[in-house]
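Why this split exists: single-chain examples teach little about how molecules sit against one another. For that reason, every record in the complexes split bundles all components of an assembly together and asks for one structure covering all of them. Below is a record exactly as it appears in the raw files.
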Amino acid sequence: MNPYLAGFGLGLVLLTAFVVMGRGLGASGAFTSAVATTVQAVAPAHAQGNAFYAEYLGDGTRSPLKDWLVFEVLGVFLGGLISGAFAHRLRLTVEKGPHVSTAARLTLAFIGGALMGAAAKIALGCTSGQALTGGALLNLGSWVFMICVFGGAYALAWFVRRQWL
Amino acid sequence: MNAPFYAFGLFSEEISLVVAFAIGLGFGFFLERAGFGNARKLAAQFYFRDLAVLKVMFTAIVTAMTGLYVLSRAGFVDLSLVHLTPTLLLPQIVGGLLLGVGFVIGGYCPGTSVVSAATGRIDGAVYLAGIVAGLFGFGELHPFIEKWLKVTPMGQITLPAWSGVPYGVIVFAVVLMALGAFAAAEWAENKFGGTAPGPGSLLGSPRLLNPARSLALGFIAVGAFAAIGGNPYREGRVTIGTHQLAQLAGTPAARVAPVALGDWIVTGRADYTLIDLRSAADFAAHRIPGAVSVPLASLTARVAPRTEKVLLYAKDDTQAAQAWILMKAFGFKSVYTLAGGLDAWNADVLFPAQPADEGASAKTEFAKRVAVARHFGGSPRGVATAGKEELPALLPPPPPPAAGSPGAPGAPPAKKKREGC
């Protein structure tokens, strides 16, 4: 799809979220709810003693999975699946450059994901919650964040070029 | 019409979860359409080969930004009710750099990795597992870095508020900047990626108007309108018909009895904001626990979210009733005044008088009131003497609740607040 039209569609979805809900899009928060729920199930005392988990667990009167972002991310999964099916892009495969082994690519994917998970919590959001949402709201912190994301990625790109090119 | 619909209570939380799923569907659909289920396409952004990430992201930002500007300026959306994540400068700089590093190493961001896993990409699924591991690691480290995570707070602040440049001018500047970046991206793709701008692009189209150029023209038009269109926030500007004002003035303010407020505070109810309208000096000398000081003359629409329950009090009823009309005109939904003001609070809650009635139920009720009075540092008085008796001297005021300490006596516990990503 023409990137400008895909961006326009994405922008209309974001605008709908603002108008209907008074909030933007997100992604990493849903996984935090899942992690907090798991820690609570395995070690309840440990979860309650940790301010970070406790914030996501709430007062215990309701499941932390009954959450806006959790339902939104379920929709993202299905929406991606539908679009991929229409475009005949559903394939069990690993996306990587020709000069890197699958094992190395998957290791780097895991490391990248771990860095992203922690970074999203430090910065109060990821590319959806901060860059897209805060960008459209002219949020000062989101624009600083966005510049830093591109800065960090471009600064390191040369060192991991073998993975992609 | 009043939007955001959810903030105005037009549907329940259960329905909001259905809305969440529907919005997610659209989000995931367009991410996949853009080709963002593929890490190679995303990573190509950082080698100037394929700058779709920049194009999609900034087209989306500009679309939502200009759309929101028009809808707010037209009075359809109350922009102050759209959640704005507070700015924490240093954590956001460090988090942003780290997130960029994670992006180029892993090839995804959280949203795109969900789409990637949904379309069968194993690296996307592994990336998701990495996110979960990273969140767990962060959770375990949280107690040690908790203090640092809150440094350099700047509150909820927008670029216009921070820079002093009018909102609409910044909207126009972002539009022009994005279009300039798109043109530069198409040039870079040609130079580094070897792909000349195609028929769907801004630069290479043989036709005068293609979708990309039509969008660009639309953005420029709205941006130019915004540059001269003024502030989209409603704050500080109340438009109210004289008839409506007369109606408001004629309506008795909704009142809460001091005894009821005492019970709310004792039982820790936190679903309201208590506002003391008297001068700061009066507030410092004596106040109801948990109240915030907002002298009547400095009352603005930003004192609390407009959907919040607000309880106003002054020395007696007069000032509170005036503030009530003002708050209703600001568009607050549930505004109450404390019946009888602080005078009634002192007489009924701090120093309750023993009822002349000796019935058992009256006695139980009085015992309860005495317990509440002692909770607030007051004491009971003898049999009521129809207000002729002087109230005992007031105790020194309780220490002001420290900012952000939910344990302060009577202060409403800090509300759970988590939004965004």
